[in-house]
Amino acid sequence: MRANLHLHSRRSDGTLSPAAVADAAAAVGLAAAALTDHDTLGGVPEFLDRAGSHGLAAWPAAEIDVSDPETGYRSEILAYFPEGRCDGTRALLAEVSERRRERARLWMSRAPAVFFREDLDYEDLIRFKIGPLEGCGPEGEYSLSKTDLFEYLKDKGVLSSAAEYREFKKAWFDTGLLPSGSYRKTGLAEVVRTVRSDGGLCVLPHPGHEYGDSLRDLSRDRKGFRSLLRRMRDLGVGGVEIYHYGNADSEGINRIAAEEARDLGLFLTYGSDCHGPGSVKYTIRDFRGDFPGWPGS
């Protein structure tokens, strides 16, 4: 199947509604797609409904922030639910969403003084976030991120409409003018255990990110990469993502990832991490893979 199984919507840090993500997937000729919003399954029903109208194969999914002290891995894991059950994972993500909201409250407690605007507050940020989300209230299923704050500040005229997110992050978060407010990531082992109890499958996304998307650095530490994959496999992670890195090293990184995955008995998925038009990752048109389906299906 022509597949892209790593897509984001407005429910987290994408620019399109979940339904519009499905429309985009169909428009570029995909046969299978998955909405993998950060730390939320809130957009899944809308996405699946529209995907079904296009005849797309689609499954509930999410991209979950994790940490693993044994390896130092602090990134994400993709969770897919071919059987359609995800109640345990949804409960776990509700706790993560509250941590994200607490972080946003911290940002907004500082924002009026930092930007000299008394009209900036947390409730207004939430109204901005949920406004375009179909059937979503303030306590609904969505994920707040620094991208939301960035877009909110542009909407309020605090930042120029031409402002770029990376420069915003450097100017305000990297300098400490706004508190980063890092929240506790859930342990990788707990996330994998929860996803598997729902009948789900876990996949390591964009493994080249661990090496700065550099083929040279990955090649130099191939033994370490194999060790990371072995740790993932032993915890219950079943697959590795072949990814659109968008650079000259992409093919080489994916070749090594595929070789190591197959040696360890891990299946492959394909994803571009598309965040939609207007974002720095509008990649749904650029990448797809021949996905054979989930193991055992």
Task: Describe it.
This protein folds into two domains: 197 residues, Metal-dependent hydrolases (TIM Barrel), CATH 3.20.20.140; 77 residues. Helix 1 runs parallel beside helix 2. The mean pLDDT is 95. The strands form two sheets. The chain has a six-stranded mixed β-sheet, with helices on one face. It has a four-stranded mixed β-sheet with strand order 3-2-1-10, with helices on one face. It contains ten helices and ten strands. 41% of the residues lie in helices and 15% in strands. With 297 residues, it is an alpha/beta fold.
Q: For this structure, what is the CATH class of the largest domain?
A: Alpha Beta
* β-strand amount: 15-25%
How many structural domains does the protein architecture include?
2
Order of helices and strands: EHEHEEEHHHHEHEHHEHEE
Give the CATH superfamily of the largest domain: Metal-dependent hydrolases
- Strand ordering within the main sheet: 6-4-5-7-8-9
Number of helices: 10
Largest sheet: 6 strands, mixed
Which bin fits the share of residues in helices? 40-55%
Question: Which structural class fits the helix and strand makeup?
Answer: alpha/beta
**Using DSSP, what is the number of strands?**
10
Mean pLDDT, to the nearest integer, reads 95
Distance between the termini: 14 Å
